Amino acid sequence: MISRNFRIAVKLSDIPAWRIATQAGVNPNVLSKIMSGALKVRSGDERVVRVGRMLGLSPEDCFKKDTWEDNYGND
Description:
α2 crosses α3 (28-36). By secondary structure, the protein is mainly alpha-helical. The mean pLDDT is 91. The radius of gyration is 12 Å and the shape is globular. The protein has a single domain, classed as lambda repressor-like DNA-binding domains (434 Repressor (Amino-terminal Domain), Orthogonal Bundle). The two termini are 20 Å apart. The chain contains 5 helices and no strands.
């Protein structure tokens, strides 16, 4: 799952998200789906890492750390 920092970096960038994606070699529609959660990604997904690098993020900063609540909810 992508991190909050990744989402914020994409949204607050002066460069439009479609251009960031294109320059990172990622289809803009894929980035849109990743951002919305429609496309689930695993930690280390190269598409996310490439976009993150464009925004000055390390690969570790691009992904949310798994917690028990993320995996099992808070029923």
